[in-house]
Amino acid sequence: MPEKIVFYKYGQSPFGQRVAIAFLEAQIPHESCEVDVWNKPTWFVEKVNTIGKIPAITYGSPSVPHDQPSVDAFKLGESLLILEFLTDLYPSSGLLPSDPVQRAQARFFIDTAEKLPLALIGWFIQGASWHGIIDMANALQALLPQPSKFAVGDNLTIADIAIMPFFALLRLVYENGIGAYPAKQAQELKWALEAPELARFKAYVDNLLARPSMRAVFDEEATKEYLRNMVAMSLKP
Fold first, then answer.
1. Which residues does the UniProt record annotate as the domain GST N-terminal (predicted)?
2. Is the pTM value of this prediction over 0.85?
3. pLDDT tens string for the chain (237 positions)?
4. Domains in the chain: ranges and CATH
């Protein structure tokens, strides 16, 4: 039986939301500890993740306070690595297919999808062209099997979970005009994402964002504040 997991997270971070969704979808028992991403405590950097990234987990820790993890506990950062670790701990969860080909397809989908966060940040924070987001939507649509609702096979896997929070973030950004871009671009991007040519991509996104696990971890108002803080920090000289 897997040992105790403590999940260190910041609720509005899409990287942490990936892991939170996996915990919910697979019903994995764990304890949670909220960490302020804007003011990380010293104990987190010294005792949990020395590079300071959130989320992180400890595994195999005895019952000790979350800010005093055991030196013997296994510690892991990077959200995608945590997702992979959870699939190994809980192979019957379905988070990763058992078929080797589908496992490879899931990992390839994740590798492709990882470019979407970069395109999103480049647009709404750095003022880059929104066309990079459309390029990514086309690339992901090309990988979607027909007529499945998911990235690989007939069930939700970490391939879907890895990108779900960023779809929610993207929609929140252009629907609320958050970012350092000309106002008209939000509507232009929305029209492009809803064009008939991307109908399968839109249906895929809608299906994922409607899942109870996604709704459970995504607080729109708190995330708006998080995004506005990101933009404000990027504009500081």
1. 3-94
2. yes
3. 578 999 999 999 999 999 999 999 999 999 999 999 889 999 999 999 999 999 999 998 778 889 899 888 999 999 999 999 999 999 999 999 999 999 999 999 999 999 999 999 999 998 899 999 999 999 999 999 988 899 998 899 999 999 999 999 999 999 999 998 888 999 999 999 999 999 999 999 999 999 999 999 999 999 999 999 888 887 766
4. 5-89 (3.40.30.10), 100-235 (1.20.1050.10)
